[in-house]
Amino acid sequence: MSGCNFEINEERLKEYNNNGFIIVKGLFDEEEVRKLKKCFEDTNEVVNNKIIVDDSLGREVNLTVWNHPGNDVTGIAARSEKVVNAAEKLLGGQEVYHYHGKLIQKNAKSGGTFLWHQDYGYWYKNGCLFPEMLTYFVALDKCDATNGCLKVLKSSHKCGRIEHSMVAGQTAADIDRVEEIKKKLEVVYVELEPGDALIFDCNLLHCSGPNDSDRRRWAYLMCYNTRHNNPVKVHHHPCYTPLIKVPNAAIKECENYSDFSGKGFMDPKENATVKTK
């Protein structure tokens, strides 16, 4: 199934519910990936708003985080029917909204490590009462074991929310509990080509290794919450904000690579719960 025509069928829904994730090959095609990368590479917004995360091992990862999709190419992708409709189907047919977006930058020879964690381990603390949330991890570069691809614990979302705490400057799941879970569940290395996507449950345990290669590993993340799960307190990510869907064709039609008005970039000084992936 091509990315343009991607939709969640019953087989993929069952796979997602059983494993806590699905991998979608070619969710964005070569031209769409080129346009996404142009947004991130040709402007100063990414550099000016990046958050530097030190992994305490002498390496770092750069993150840029924003709250609302906006009308640039990256925002059009986040509002496209193929992305939003699939998120709604995976979350029980409920209306979803854009919780936030991220650009994760692991640069060559220096990209750092992220510890095992669940996204809901810290989104829970934002006042989200239910784990009705998911993330799209879209590869902008080839992701493999040598440049720090994601690792997931298959079906670990069925363990429920695990206690998290600050470890080496990161929000990490209880180490002892994770070690016990690893004895029972399969660790999957999520190797992706540019344009491929991992869609995963907010309770899925995941981590990533360092980038020891001479290739960068950039990824675009789109996070969604359900309207039903509107947070009960105001925090640094949006409460329910209606999401205006656009046709899939709008991604290739969009030529806005620099007007990021309305996205709401996160201040690097206020990065309480974004230290992930």
UniProtKB/TrEMBL annotation:
Gene3D superfamilies: q2cbj1_9rhob like domain (2.60.120.620). Pfam families: PhyH. Its cofactor is Fe cation. PANTHER family: PHYTANOYL-COA DIOXYGENASE DOMAIN CONTAINING 1, PHYTANOYL-COA HYDROXYLASE. This is Uncharacterized protein LOC111125861 isoform X1. The lineage of its organism: Eukaryota, Metazoa, Spiralia, Lophotrochozoa, Mollusca.
